């Protein structure tokens, strides 16, 4: 993180979320005009009671993007549910232990054609060749579900969005 600060790629780094909404607002406020990105890594260990309010207000009124990294798509928590309902993007990686969660998410996203979402997820998260050196030169893909109201509908389900990926950008389109 120090390297990112030194290179000017980020302007502020905080190791843990502050205890109150007001304290987080004070940290992020100087960046609202130009736009801010708040990354909550290992989010489940940092769940604060005020986080749903951050998702609801910072993203719609404060020119802020929230990236909440979690190992779980669903959690038995009304706060987590509010955050999930207010997420513009959900990025899924391969999870062989509980594929039922992807089915539940697919049913929420496309109740009339959830199999389309499941098949797109399975294709997007398959093993693929990496452009950067890696022990076996392969990794697993990711699947983006785009719930942003301002995004074109055609981009709702996609993968391979980064320029250094070997495979081309893939957009999954439902056949009618």
Walk me through the structure.
This protein is α+β, with helices and mostly antiparallel strands and 176 residues long. The protein folds into two domains: 1-83, no CATH class; 88-176, no CATH class. Helix content is 30%, strand content 18%. The chain has six helices and eight strands, in the order ααβαβαβααβββββ. It has helices at residues 2-6, 21-28, 51-61, 78-85, 100-109, 114-124, and strands at residues 36-40, 64-68, 89-93, 127-129, 138-140, 142-146, 157-159, 170-171. β4 (127-129) and β5 form a beta hairpin. The chain is globular. The chain starts with a helix and ends in a 5-residue tail after the last strand.
Short description:
This protein is of the alpha+beta class and 176 residues long. It is built from six helices and eight strands.
How much strand content do the residues show?
A: 15-25%
Gyration radius, rounded:
18 Å
Query: Total domains, how many?
Result: 2
Q: Low-confidence parts, pLDDT < 50 over ≥5 residues?
A: none
Helix content: 25-40%
Provide the succession of SSEs.
Answer: HHEHEHEHHEEEEE
Structural class: alpha+beta
Q: How would you sum up the major sheet? A: 4 strands, antiparallel
Overall mean pLDDT? 84
Biggest β-sheet: strands ordered side by side in the sheet:
3-6-7-8
User: N-to-C terminal Cα separation, in Å?
Assistant: 46 Å
Supply the number of helical segments.
6
Strands, total number: 8
Question: Any idea what the shape is?
Answer: globular
